[in-house]
Design brief:
The complex is a heterodimer of chains A (111) and B (117). With 111 residues, chain A is mostly beta strands. In chain A, the strands form 2 sheets. In chain A, strands 2, 4, 5, 9, 10 and 11 form a 6-stranded mixed β-sheet that branches. In chain A, strands 1-3-8-7-6 form a 5-stranded antiparallel β-sheet, with no helix packed on it. With 117 residues, chain B is an all-beta fold. Chain B has no helices and 11 strands. Chain B starts with a strand and ends with a strand. Classes of the chains: A mainly beta (111), B mainly beta (117). At the A-B interface, strand 5, strand 9 and strand 10 of A face strand 5 of B.
């Protein structure tokens, strides 16, 4: 089983749509969770951290369910500029700073 | 603030040749990482430095890969000899290396795209 699993997509959605991505992780001892965004042929960039209480940043909402070892990202009112690959990231077993990346979910927002 | 710098941006070599990548992290960042990203996959950590010491190199194929960060600032990653399966993007990242390690942001450089023929 992969440490971090994501649906690879692709997700093709119209502008203005709401889209949700899910991710599961295998190590119940993981303590930090993130979503990174990676544009085509660019480097990954931190989109947001994910907290147990859930957190929101504008049109983006992240949720964490520790019992199910499940992380989600919701994007409301999708924009063309949201087209990218979204990487689910969890700290590696036994290390706070080391990160394990999922393979990413590709999103294309269509006009 | 200047970001993480990497060079070269692209490299094409033949198998069995050697290649080196260079990374200059964000000023003041103590922790430096090298990742390998194969097409269609997420980045995979190869090695982590804290200042000029290696924290973890358990996923570095040491028979052909080597890395150093001699003065605790910039770093080089070398592959010798290269194999076809080494074709990937090599990403360097840095982080502050202080404070809450569980909420530390890693900042990535633009990467070096390596093609081994």
């Amino acid at each position: 089983r992969k440490e971090v699993e994501q649906d690879p997509g692709p997700f093709n959605v119209p502008e203005g749509a709401t889209v949700a991505f899910n991710c599961t992780y295998s190590n119940s001892a993981s303590q930090s969770f993130f979503w990174y965004r990676q544009d085509c042929r660019k480097e990954p960039k931190l989109l947001m951290s994910v907290y147990s209480s859930g957190n929101e940043d504008g049109r983006f909402t992240a949720q964490l369910n520790r019992a199910s070892q499940y992380i989600s990202l919701l994007i409301r009112d999708s924009k063309l500029s949201d087209s990218a690959t979204y990487l689910c990231v969890v700290n590696s077993p036994g290390s706070a700073r080391q990160l394990t990346f999922g393979s990413g979910t590709q999103l294309t927002v269509l006009p | 603030e200047a970001g993480v710098a990497q060079s070269p941006r692209y490299k094409i070599i033949e198998k069995r040749q050697s290649v080196a990548f260079w990374c200059n992290p964000i000023s003041g960042h103590a922790t430096l990482y090298w990742y390998q990203q194969i097409l269609g996959q997420g980045p995979k950590l190869l090695i982590q430095f804290q200042n000029n010491g290696v924290v973890d190199d358990s996923q570095l194929p040491k028979d052909r890969f080597s890395a150093e960060r001699l003065k605790g600032v910039d770093s080089t990653l070398k592959i010798q000899p290269a194999k076809l399966e080494d074709s990937a993007v090599y990403l360097c990242a840095s982080s502050l290396g202080a404070g809450d390690p569980y909420q530390e942001t890693q900042y990535f450089g633009p990467g070096t795209r390596l093609l081994v023929l």
